[in-house]
Design brief:
Pfam families: ADH_N (PF08240), ADH_zinc_N_2 (PF13602)
GO molecular function: oxidoreductase activity
Structural class: alpha/beta
CATH architecture of the largest domain: Alpha-Beta Complex
Protein name: Alcohol dehydrogenase
Number of domains: 2
Shape: globular
Oligomer: single chain
Distance between the termini: 11 Å
Domain Enoyl reductase (ER): 10-320
InterPro entries: ADH-like_N, ER, GroES-like_sf, NAD(P)-bd_dom_sf, YIM1/Zinc_Alcohol_DH_Fams
Length: 322
Amino acid sequence: MKAIISSEYGGPDTLQFNEIEKPKPLDNQVLVKIHAASMNYGNMLLLKGYPLLARLVFGVRKPKFTIPGGDMSGTVEAVGKNITQFQPGDEVFGDLSGSGWGAFAEYAAVPEEAIVRKPHNLSFEEAAAVPMAAVTALQAIRNKGKLKPGQKVLVHGATGGVGLFAVQIAKALGAEVTAVVSTRNVDLVQTVGADHTIDYTKEDFAEQEQNYDLILGVNGSRSISTYKRKLNNGGIYVNVGGGNSQLFQTLLLGPLLFIGGNKKASLFLQRANQKDLEFLRELIEEGKVKAIIDKTFQLSEAPEAYRYFEEEHIQGKVVLLV
């Protein structure tokens, strides 16, 4: 089979498009013929090995997961004898980041808990855009943010993969959602359900009177003290992404800044979860959540996809067609 191989840390030029042996499923694995896969921030960590803390997970000197790619969709080709949830011909999608990665290939042998049946109303390309970003948004909002219907949510950085899903999921869970975006993205976030938009090139959410019950720093670029000031009493700030400054502020300053009050700050790391993906499949089939694709590339064009993902201001997801 054809696959993208990452044998050393570096930039997109280190990736190779090679032919390797097709995997055979073990007794507890499903062999999936992959039709599409998508890019996520984790792919950049796995490619570059930076920040250096990432190497504790991905390999100190070189990547221990040589085929990158977490999100994928495809068709079950074969199953091991212990598999009970799937059979050949099933259309599936899933996140392989918790089971060795490997989505940037024509086939992958995966544990059955890494996949669920594909939503009937999504194409393979759209389905591949969902898992990691949408589960990240769901877990940040529901698990860390403790969202309740009727609460006010601010999504800071609302037009990347996670941000667009966050707007939709928060709406589906009954929130009143404000999205902070640039001018070119105002219409986009409105089409996916944002109740209010703030164009950061024209106005500053920190200077407005409105406060929020939950703030998601998806691409947060403001200080943690600013986010705290914009929370209602009992409110929660969840750091989902942003620069190293926001990461270290949340880790180091958060416990001190939020001590003694009824506001909270939390750093969030997504974990692949089959039940969460099943929940999202239901929301998608009910028409409450949809995938937004910015651009597609062929699998052989993976280096170009990485460059585009890193250098452009993405509206939604970047997808590789296999």
